[in-house]
TrEMBL record, chains A, B, C, D:
Gene encoding the protein: argC
Catalytic site positions: 150
Assigned keywords, A-Z: Amino-acid biosynthesis, Arginine biosynthesis, Cytoplasm, NADP, Oxidoreductase
InterPro entries, A to Z: AGPR (IPR050085), AGPR_AS (IPR023013), AGPR_dimerisation_dom (IPR058924), AGPR_type-1 (IPR000706), NAD(P)-bd_dom_sf (IPR036291), Semialdehyde_DH_NAD-bd (IPR000534)
Pathway info: Amino-acid biosynthesis; L-arginine biosynthesis; N(2)-acetyl-L-ornithine from L-glutamate: step 3/4
EC number: 1.2.1.38
Protein species of origin: Oceanobacillus arenosus
GO cellular component labels: cytoplasm
Residues covered by the Semialdehyde dehydrogenase NAD-binding domain: 3-142
Domain of life: Bacteria
Function, as annotated: Catalyzes the NADPH-dependent reduction of N-acetyl-5-glutamyl phosphate to yield N-acetyl-L-glutamate 5-semialdehyde.
Gene3D superfamilies: Dihydrodipicolinate Reductase, domain 2, NAD(P)-binding Rossmann-like Domain
SUPFAM superfamilies: Glyceraldehyde-3-phosphate dehydrogenase-like, C-terminal domain, NAD(P)-binding Rossmann-fold domains
Name of the featured protein: N-acetyl-gamma-glutamyl-phosphate reductase
Catalytic activity entry: N-acetyl-L-glutamate 5-semialdehyde + phosphate + NADP(+) = N-acetyl-L-glutamyl 5-phosphate + NADPH + H(+)
Amino acid sequence: MKNVAIIGGTGYGAIELIRLLHAHKHLQVKKIISHSQFGERITSVYPHLTGFVEEPMEKLEIDNLIEEVDIIFFATPAGVAKDLIPKFADSTVQCIDLSGDLRLRSKEQYEQWYGKEAAPQEILNQAVYGLSEIYQEQVKEAKIISNPGCFPTSALLGLIPALEHNVITPNHIVIDGKTAVSGAGRTPTATTHFSETNENITPYKIGKHQHIPEIDQTLSEIAQETIHTTFTTHLIPMTRGLICTMYAELARDISTEEVIDQYQTYYVNHPFVRIKEIGIFPTTKDVYGSNFCDIGLHVDERTNQLIITSAIDNLVKGAAGQAIQNANLMNGWEETEGLDAIPIFP
Amino acid sequence: MKNVAIIGGTGYGAIELIRLLHAHKHLQVKKIISHSQFGERITSVYPHLTGFVEEPMEKLEIDNLIEEVDIIFFATPAGVAKDLIPKFADSTVQCIDLSGDLRLRSKEQYEQWYGKEAAPQEILNQAVYGLSEIYQEQVKEAKIISNPGCFPTSALLGLIPALEHNVITPNHIVIDGKTAVSGAGRTPTATTHFSETNENITPYKIGKHQHIPEIDQTLSEIAQETIHTTFTTHLIPMTRGLICTMYAELARDISTEEVIDQYQTYYVNHPFVRIKEIGIFPTTKDVYGSNFCDIGLHVDERTNQLIITSAIDNLVKGAAGQAIQNANLMNGWEETEGLDAIPIFP
Amino acid sequence: MKNVAIIGGTGYGAIELIRLLHAHKHLQVKKIISHSQFGERITSVYPHLTGFVEEPMEKLEIDNLIEEVDIIFFATPAGVAKDLIPKFADSTVQCIDLSGDLRLRSKEQYEQWYGKEAAPQEILNQAVYGLSEIYQEQVKEAKIISNPGCFPTSALLGLIPALEHNVITPNHIVIDGKTAVSGAGRTPTATTHFSETNENITPYKIGKHQHIPEIDQTLSEIAQETIHTTFTTHLIPMTRGLICTMYAELARDISTEEVIDQYQTYYVNHPFVRIKEIGIFPTTKDVYGSNFCDIGLHVDERTNQLIITSAIDNLVKGAAGQAIQNANLMNGWEETEGLDAIPIFP
Amino acid sequence: MKNVAIIGGTGYGAIELIRLLHAHKHLQVKKIISHSQFGERITSVYPHLTGFVEEPMEKLEIDNLIEEVDIIFFATPAGVAKDLIPKFADSTVQCIDLSGDLRLRSKEQYEQWYGKEAAPQEILNQAVYGLSEIYQEQVKEAKIISNPGCFPTSALLGLIPALEHNVITPNHIVIDGKTAVSGAGRTPTATTHFSETNENITPYKIGKHQHIPEIDQTLSEIAQETIHTTFTTHLIPMTRGLICTMYAELARDISTEEVIDQYQTYYVNHPFVRIKEIGIFPTTKDVYGSNFCDIGLHVDERTNQLIITSAIDNLVKGAAGQAIQNANLMNGWEETEGLDAIPIFP
């Protein structure tokens, strides 16, 4: 049994880690660190945890963590992990960062899109981008993981097989993202205020979402040329779930059946990606509470476009679930350990 | 005061007409015709109408209608209006069809996309496509109106100014549609079942939505060349509201400010279209219960794309509201008569 | 045309007043006063008002208001109106307070339940409790109106006819309140945070809701004996709508039909109260966006209880709508002026 | 490992059993029986099960079941299990009925409230009412379990400790039930139609809900006198979750702290009941997806009433979860086996 610390104890990332790790055979949550509420029990914030986590949350103490835990999950706001992770550099502690701090290899890009100073270059060099299905071999060797964003996870898993197989051209890729509100976290704001978010579709951060460079960076690496995607995001009146609908120009004549076949082959050893049959498109509820990414495909012959829909639970495959999947890979455990639950439906 | 009959009395289109016409100075609902429930009071189906409509619904009798009413709104399922409207051909009754029966000029297209026999050619020739802002002059002269679909209304109002001004190229236009559930009508089905629709995003009719040829037909007319758009639709867990997010390649260098300026000029005499300022994108709740179409614009310099979001209430500007707007134009009344309400918020 | 000022311009009460007054023949909104955002346009906060209200919000200036407006609606947080209304005492300006400041006749009660100093006694003496259907005659003569709370409006209209007619005994009255989230106002808080409010039922303020003494005060006056009701409130995942389900011991043998009959007679001259037929119970959507209060009744013979359900739109009959209804009564206009809209459905 | 059959394979009860049993150490689903869709894969109805259940659903064959399975869960509509269970009387197969067929001991009552012929008397005699916490000893010895209804589970667990300890009097008990829509099952109807259920509170079956006699029967047994409760139900716009708010007259002077203390003692050995601290009331989301019943308590001194709120997930503790809890008890396994998951939040 390895010991886990979660830093950022009062956010949604943290409680989803707690929920999922409860079923994990090799990992146990030893410490929950909260900057703002140490000393309090987490159940005073999250009564659903009553009976599961009764110890008070703790203050961050680096030495203490190095001594007592094996893995740290950073479920912290942007700008925190980049300053903390270097402090564990000389220890054996595995660090998995759920924030965006280590996702962009270019310090300039981070500073431009996040508006903060970037992580030290040596940490960026060390960090592996934990899109588990795509970078599985690198993850297995990693000590620091930069866990992907929710939109990039959905978009990249949906686009990469077609891009790698030259089914689509890298230009004109459009990604229309739709996300549940929990992606915005736990701090109440005008855009997460029930009365205005309910019964509403809200486009937001058009042209300036920090997931744009993250998606483009990985697609460019895969295609080995610079790719700029057009990416938009919409807030949908629901708590969990995220779908990207993607449009890309076909590079050659191909039928929907053939594309589906290619995707099924591509992901054959990846239990968390499920490719839908022809004419079936995933809904977000198909993956609710689970680590699955369900992908639907359609060749639009009228317009020579491949239409891809890719659905995940933004808090699981888009955050805590993929983080645990990466921990499994890093430690040589079954990839599905702790994540083998059936989605909750309806 | 002119007399109105509504055919299809128990659908959402009908009750939205009743709601809006209640505030109309020149129109009064004289007859509500229901094929399945004539003889019953509409309040047994829709208790919210108690005190407003107490007469029983009636059976369809053509002669009777010709004698007693001046305008008929057809809020009927696909395939009904095309058989009925010819029967009013020799009368002076104005016919406004909210179904899709008269929207496609090509009988072949109708038969292909709707799977039913098309309307007679002479009726198709006579019918004016009632996208009020664009075909205002033709609507004023019309006796038969084919009221546009909800997605086409949103998409076309959003795209046409850019297309007409050659701001965008006609290729690669992508329209990602997101709609509330009321667009599916009143008949309970698996896809409108609360437990499965709630907390869910459901892509549907990918590549085969009957609004595709309707959009392409109008865009092609405007551009005077054949245009095929890529169009998808997603069911969103809310009752009312629809937004299309659109992506089109810029044909020339232009700033967001200039595009906004062009749109504002284009719609300056059209009170129901509101162009948002730079950086602001409409939400569906901004137009809830009203006849507005709110449009947001963004030039994405990274990808040379124009991003357009266009929000309407699917039951008002996307159906009953635009039908009344057309009735106003046909009869020389104020375009806003009966439609001058503030959207309901929150 | 009389001129209106609304104080508290950025709350939901204010924008609902603006929406409803837009259709009013005798009232026009002349000034919108905002303490926190004067100088700004209200459309920067509420884009749905674009084209309707373009003047900037103003700072409060008493003299100015006395000169320029005839009626002031106070849509202010608790504790504000009680200090402002005295300043208009010597003017002819009619004051309608939508907050709870003037609702409790006892200064001690106010201080106990609201935790603030009460209004001056002379103002409390002057203020008429504007439950329009019940205190119609007093409202007609009033210059200061204390507009009822949302729960009290629903509960009192549902209970009073039975209480007055001695159909029920005054003991053991239970009122189970269920409200939409907009009742909590516009300030984002943990209890209005979408991710936690959605898909959730939240009991709140059990035993300490400030509407308890307001309900008891009026029932006690009607019954001419002290009544203590048991009252609870639950937050429901929706934006608008409120229902009270009420339980009271029958004082005598009576059938559901007879009770319904009594209620219909009681409210026969009150157009905003609609009594449902036997076996039919109102839903909140039946009154959405309207000033109606729909009431359903059932005699439970097994337990000798009268069960009453009373549904309103919390922002209309529970706030802005009833305030306008009171303004109509105070000025001798049609009671329904500006309020004669059909509920929005679905 | 014991083998399970689920009869009624396409309902929500069945798929929730499948979801929960997936984590069970001693039970595996061997057969899914569907009357209407045998031969089909369940994933064609429920795509979220892709990869978990791929065998086709089967036709009901009694002999075959007796041979191959150890436990049958009947997730069937009313009127089905009562005819099937007698056929397993001579076998060793354990039968757990999630429908209401065996819940009422009196055949007359069943026929009156369900409108169907009752089960044979010998089956009714044999069936144990599986309210696990209350009838634990009887459940351990049972071969046939009548699994309680969702409302009765919530109401009874909330009321029984106070009733048994004579904290409350048995008269005037009021139970105000509020439930998510999934309780209505999978068949689309007008009352589960998204557009009308969303943004709405719908009181239903007032005075005639079949859970009334079920609640009264158990309370009467506990109190050893005839009890008639007043019980109402309201449909709430959410998918999962149920809460009963209950009101009962205090039989003696007691503080909230003392009542909480009594409840904590009462349920000390029952891991699925969590009693909230003073001033805290459970929300349905606190138990989402889990087998917990969370109970909040408040002594209302003003009215001498005990107010109890009791929250469950209607599909888990209110159906499939409690059924598995009963199977655990019947077979001598850990009561929490397969049910030890943290509620999903947010």
